Automatic annotation (TrEMBL):
Protein name, entry field: Transcriptional regulator
CDD domains, per database record: HTH_ARSR
One Pfam assignment: HTH_20
Organism expressing this protein natively: Alsobacter soli
Domain HTH arsR-type positions: 7-102
InterPro entries to which the protein is assigned, alphabetical: ArsR-like_HTH (IPR011991), HTH_ArsR_DNA-bd_dom (IPR001845), HTH_MetalResp_TranReg (IPR051081), WH-like_DNA-bd_sf (IPR036388), WH_DNA-bd_sf (IPR036390)
Length: 114
């Protein structure tokens, strides 16, 4: 296995927990809510769903654990927001992966057509 391949596998393995966190419909909904109105409390997020505050807390902890959101303590509440740069970092890596696949598919097309 080449060093480049090993490095690519390590980098994408780092993103596996992030993809797993985003694979849940509820967590995607929470990300959408935080994108629309940053610095939201658990109560305000729970008011938009049929989920309990405990369930919302569980999902927020998963998102926070993979670095997508951050909490700021204000008095007795924690306010949640999308962590700056988290989505951009992922977007850059996905764009790089897409570019590599485009190059490989173009090479395959040339090989098949020749």
């Amino acid at each position: 296995m080449s060093a480049e391949h090993t490095e690519a596998r390590r980098r994408w393995a780092d993103f596996a927990p992030l993809f797993a966190a985003l694979s849940d419909e509820t967590r995607l909904g929470l990300m959408d809510a935080l994108a629309a109105t940053p610095r939201r409390s658990i109560s305000s997020l729970a008011d938009q769903t049929d989920l309990t505050r405990q369930a919302i807390t569980k999902h927020l902890r998963v998102l926070e654990g993979v670095g997508l959101i951050e909490a700021q303590r204000v008095g007795r509440e924690s306010l949640y927001a999308i962590r700056p740069g988290a989505i951009e970092d992922l977007g850059r890596d996905l764009a790089a992966l897409s570019e590599r696949w485009d190059e490989r598919l173009a090479a395959l097309k040339r090989l098949v057509e020749d």
